[in-house]
Backbone:
């Protein structure tokens, strides 16, 4: 697995909907999903990252937003997720059956602006590492 299991904790699962033409997300660890200012990744069962991102507020809220954006696009209603990307999500779920969201909240770091969590730095490093 590409992520350190001591830092990144499983928090949610993404699967195909019953109709096989939509997706759904289920929270598996509510406590982890309550973290804010965190880095998340959707990974396959063998640990391959398919999406790496950050969230400012509740990680669970961010993860639960995926079905709305993707399903809206798949239904032809446009939105934040382009159709080609929504179709890629369907393809990933068809191929892998399930994706797992893992979350990490970096420790605060003292900067010139005060204490801050280096979420964007961690996100950029992971994207670069697993491009």
Residues:
């Amino acid at each position: 697995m590409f992520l350190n299991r001591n830092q990144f904790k499983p928090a949610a699962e993404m699967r195909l909907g019953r109709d096989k033409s939509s997706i759904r997300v289920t929270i598996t660890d509510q406590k982890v999903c309550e973290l804010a200012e965190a880095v998340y990744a959707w990974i396959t069962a063998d640990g391959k990252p398919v999406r790496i991102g950050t969230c400012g507020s509740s990680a669970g809220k961010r993860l639960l937003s995926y079905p709305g954006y993707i399903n809206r696009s798949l239904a032809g209603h446009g939105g934040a997720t382009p159709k080609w990307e929504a179709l890629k999500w369907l393809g990933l779920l068809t191929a892998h059956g399930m994706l797992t969201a893992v979350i990490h909240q970096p420790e605060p770091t003292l900067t010139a602006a005060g204490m801050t969590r280096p979420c964007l730095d961690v996100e950029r490093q992971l994207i670069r590492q697993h491009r």
Summary: The two ends are 15 Å apart (CA to CA). The first strand starts at residue 9 and ends at 16. Strands lie at 9-16, 23-27, 38-43, 49-55, 98-104, 109-111, 114-116.
